[in-house]
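Go through this:
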Amino acid sequence: MSMSGVVDLAAVKAAGEAKQKAEQQRADPAGGGGSAPAGLVINVDEAGFEADVLQRSAEVPVVIDFWAEWCEPCKQLGPILERLAQEYAGRFLLAKVDVDSNQMLFQQFGVQGIPAVFAVVAGQALPLFQGAAPEQQIRETLDQLIQVSEERFGITGLQGVPQAEAEEAQEEEPEPAGPPEDPALAAAHQALDEGDMERAVQAYRDVLAQDPGNTEARLGLGQAELLGRVQGLDAQQVRKEAADQPTLVDAQLRAADLDMVGGHVEDAFGRIVETVKRTAGDDRERARLRLLELFEVIGAEDSRVVTARSALARVLF
């Protein structure tokens, strides 16, 4: 792993100052540098980012997990990162950022899609990987991050986190197992996790053919279809076409899909509502149906869906 190409964050202390602070903390345990942390996994928002991430990155590598509640791959990756944070016992700190609630951070880091994982070391941000990577690959990436942090900045992580505590956290009593998962639905989830969108779409459709009211399958189908549509798209070209041709339905729908995958849910909904407003006939109906599909991805009870439904109704009627 190289630190070349890092993203310098605004209002970040120089790397030299960060390194000096870390060295002072290690030399003076009474000053607080050697105390065990309150938690190895923290939820971070824009208001607390400087204190929780930038300042702490002077003493420990901070791994940032950009996620969202509606993102199925995020739900696969998150528990792995949280378990590894406990296992690594203070050699890195995991900061979780909900992109729906923290759009400024999402944009500042230039995140293109979620899940996305970055690291901040001595006030500098480094992209690690995107998507639900295999655990072995994640471990190798974390090991390289820890090595670079120590060799280049002298940052060795938080001290005083007993390994026994980490092991105990992993050995806690598991929650009672729920009912066994439908094998067909499990196969659909596996295809989605593996990135085989064509197989995932067909598998979810098979489940719905047998159980039309299966909410989980309907949600999974919407996600798989969305991810399948954005595969291979040139984001820059798509957005240019959408800006140059505001009445071209296909261009607007492709841009809306990219907005959704990038976590810009309101932007995606607003774009399609405007498209419905500008168009008529078959074009308007295609845009309307796509918006309804995206509502399924987020969930009918979500406040953004409720707001967009009202906006759509005003345009149609």
